[in-house]
Amino acid sequence: MIATPKSPVPLRAPARRGGAKAKAKSPAKSPAKAPAKSLGPLPEWNLADLYPAFDAPEVKRDLEKAEAECVTLENAYKGRLSELARGEAAGKALVKAVRQYEGIDDLLGRLMSFAGLLYAGDTTDPVRAKFYGDMQERITAASSHLLFFTLELNRLDDADVEAAMADPALGHFRPWLEDIRKDKPYQLEDRVEQLFHEKSVTGYSAFNRLFDETMSSLRFKVGGKVLAIEPTLNMLQDPKPATRKAASEALAKTFRENLRLFTHITNTLAKDKEISDRWRGFADVAESRHLANRVEPEVVDALVSSVRTAYPRLSHRYYALKARWFGKKRLPNWDRNAPLPQVALCTIRWPEAQSAVLDAYGAFSPRMAAIAERFFKDRWIDAPVRPGKSPGAFAHPTVPSAHPYVMLNYQGKPRDVMTLAHELGHGVHQVLAAPNGALMAPTPLTLAETASVFGEMLTFKRLLAETIDKKQRKAMLAAKVEDMINTVVRQIAFYTFERQIHTERRNGELTSEQINNIWMEVQRESLGPAIDLRPGYETFWTYIPHFIHSPFYVYAYAFGDCLVNSLYAVYEKSETGFAERYLEMLAAGGTKHHSELLAPFGLDARDPAFWQGGLGVIERMIGELEGLE
């Protein structure tokens, strides 16, 4: 996944999840610990490319500089943009202001990226937590002086803005100006916007942090071991059925013990969003996400409808097949992602994972591989599992003046190699888009997931082509189908769950039992009759971070997966030039709408057949697996 903003600041916000192994005194320079011998040397990132340490003088210098520049911009331009837009040299006057604003965006983004990456490396460390919290407060206060800027730009007369953009320097920022002006119908009076902005620190951002710190501190007793959440979740893919069952029951037990807190967090954040949506005039619970993604609601509706209609042909069909492989009519929920029986599981060492991804990228585009290789050589990756480190994986773009960072929890599973390919796809995308600058490099989530899923597909296809053993080939196909089901079916089920939660919350607080019941309903619908949802599974909604940090983010995964399936089909049929067109698409960053980016490939997400084509790829893979029986 891509680390996404979690504050209303018109700036690059902190990484939602990240990590850096370090001592509190000098977090960016600490050497890596020796990893498990079986995996080889696992890299830990070097945050010194941002700042040497949290207490380094450079942090203090840049924070004070950013605070001063925010006030300077406000004093120079607040209340004056409409006057500047009507002047003879409107373009030159406005572009000067926009460039100043962009420079501040980059500087504040660098500070907050560093704080977020460092904090999430160990969210249980009080020193890091205090630094992160203090930075959030200072940057929120500083950026409150910038709120006027986009609000006033949006109030400018369309004709004046169009005339000013005749100046090529301002015209360069046309995509950004047009994007922010789409928010115009939903912006509020300046002081209300400032209130929303300042109270975010004690509102939803505080509950985001509470969730992160709680989740990182939870412990799960499996057999004689007491584990954090990441290694416990990993046990659900263990070859031993007893281990998978014990891990599932341990997860359920701890989730149940903390259910009241997670219910409170969910209710609070859903209400917070409802208040914001109501004040801004968003009618639908997901409308603000669609606007942020620059995707039409009808496109998302077509995607959701297509996937839900396909449940019987996809997940229901596959899990019935998997149950037969296990000699059962129904699989307990802890066996949903179990490795196939009678197939030896291999541990993939880090050097092998690196080679697999870089070779796959290089066969497609040497330039793409060269960019990805920098993540390994220059220590832009943090791979080991550590106590207190956030679970999961992400790529965080930081700011164009720096470079992205990738976080993993690498444990040598085949899926971990796919995760590496996925996050490096994001990283390559972020590097290519960076020249667009701080305002236009960020990409809507729907398109951001395209590069990551395409990177996975390249790696999978190459590994599959090199696999001769029939059992291993079957296992690889099954793992890919499961990943695609998790990316498409599961994420649309998550989206359906969120819609119901946010809709019901408008009628009052939800009890834990109500949330559990909604979760079970959507899981039964999406997984089908071959998955037996045992007692305890009703609490598994509690650990999904997307629900907390980025409401309705999840459909972007399904959007990206279906888009990539269609895109890859074009690639397989193309003769020359595809890689160049693909990298040009990534390099566009946030400067083009999805329809413009897909047009060179002959694809249109507004066409219902587009989604059917993407889902058909998954169906054909399931058919291939059925043919191997």
CATH topology call of the largest domain: Neurolysin, domain 3
What's the average pLDDT? 90
Known CATH architecture of the largest domain: Orthogonal Bundle
Radius of gyration: 24 Å
- Name the structural class: mainly alpha
How big a fraction of the residues is strand? Answer: under 5%
**Integer tally of domains:** 3
How many helix segments?
Answer: 28
Distance between the termini: 34 Å
CATH domain class of the largest domain: Mainly Alpha
How many strand segments?
7
Shape: globular
Topology:
Layout (H helix, E strand, L loop, with lengths): L56 H21 L3 H5 L4 H32 L4 H18 L3 H9 L2 H7 L3 H4 L2 H8 L8 H10 L4 H14 L2 E3 L2 E3 L1 H6 L6 H17 L1 H22 L6 H7 L3 H14 L4 H11 L5 E2 L17 H15 L1 H12 L3 E2 L11 E3 L8 E3 L6 H20 L11 H21 L4 H18 L1 H17 L6 H16 L3 E2 L12 H5 L5 H19 L4 H10 L6 H5 L9 H20 L2
Parallel strand pairs: 3-7, 4-6
Antiparallel strand pairs: 1-2, 5-6
